[in-house]
Design goal:
CATH architecture of the largest domain: Up-down Bundle
Order of helices and strands: HHHEEHHHHHHHH
Keywords: DNA-binding, Transcription, Transcription regulation
Shape: globular
Protein name: Transcriptional regulator, GntR family
Largest sheet: 2 strands, antiparallel
CATH class of the largest domain: Mainly Alpha
Pfam families: FCD (PF07729), GntR (PF00392)
GO molecular function: DNA binding; DNA-binding transcription factor activity
CATH superfamily of the largest domain: GntR ligand-binding domain-like
CATH topology of the largest domain: Four Helix Bundle (Hemerythrin (Met), subunit A)
Organism: Ruania alba
Radius of gyration: 18 Å
Length: 237
């Protein structure tokens, strides 16, 4: 299997997912075949292993790949899942579907925050805090791409802390669809700073194990993000 390096300015995990999906559907990578390792794929695509890992999660969500602990990732003969249909949709910054997608994401993020507050382990909190620090570093450096990536990882790590694999992969798919609109918001330093403050409120609630406050903090964060993007779209019209 041979792949092309991906462009850093675009959603890299989705590009990787699309290339692997294409080879699976064409038969170049056959049912039951083991994919190359994360290290090998990261070298072929010219990206970090975490980006490859996110792409594999998306392929799992689509029902194309199954990961076996200690063995690797293998191609499945299952291409008709609901999440596969979800991922086949595309949402541009000026698409009316942005509103529907934010509404859908809000429900998922509220569940994620509540369950994470109830179920998180100490190591989860450590990693979530690390992602928050990466948020701050990116904002200080006016690094829009770095902020978009660390924002993604922040929310993904909270979802993983719930221990619910279905919530994790569906929320990952929804956030992937929102990549362009979130990246647009991340180009504004004021929006980045507001998001960091909102992230801090969520983390504080998670540390206290306060599920109700975590849910409310997540609700406020999504509402703020949605408002920022709506204002940007309005200015562009």
């Amino acid at each position: 299997m041979t792949f092309q390096p991906v462009a850093p300015a675009q959603s890299r995990s989705q590009q990787i997912m699309a290339q692997i999906e294409s080879q699976i559907r064409s038969g170049a990578i056959k049912v039951g075949e083991k994919l190359a390792t994360e290290k090998e794929l990261s070298e072929q695509f010219g990206v970090s292993r975490s980006v490859v890992r996110e792409a594999i999660k998306l392929l799992e969500a689509m029902g194309l790949v199954v990961s076996r602990q200690g063995s690797g990732s293998y191609v499945r003969n299952d291409t008709g899942t609901a999440v596969s249909r979800l991922l086949s949709l595309s949402v541009s910054p000026n698409d009316r579907g942005v509103q529907d997608l934010f509404e859908f994401r809000e429900g998922l993020e509220l569940l994620s925050a509540r369950w994470a507050a109830e179920r998180r382990q100490s190591e989860d909190l450590d990693e979530i805090r690390t992602r928050l620090e990466e948020n701050r570093t990116a904002a200080r450096g006016h690094d829009a791409e770095g902020f978009t990536v660390s924002d993604w990882q922040f929310h993904s790590r909270i979802a993983e802390a719930t221990g619910n694999q279905y919530l994790t992969v569906v929320l990952s798919a929804v956030r992937e669809m929102q990549h362009d609109v979130v990246a647009m918001m991340s180009s504004d330093i004021g929006s980045m700073e507001r998001a960091i403050g909102e992230h801090e409120r969520i983390v504080d609630a998670l540390e206290r194990g306060d599920a109700a406050e975590a849910e409310e903090a997540a609700r406020a964060h999504i509402a703020s993000t949605r408002k920022n993007i709506e204002e940007m779209l309005h200015r562009e019209r």
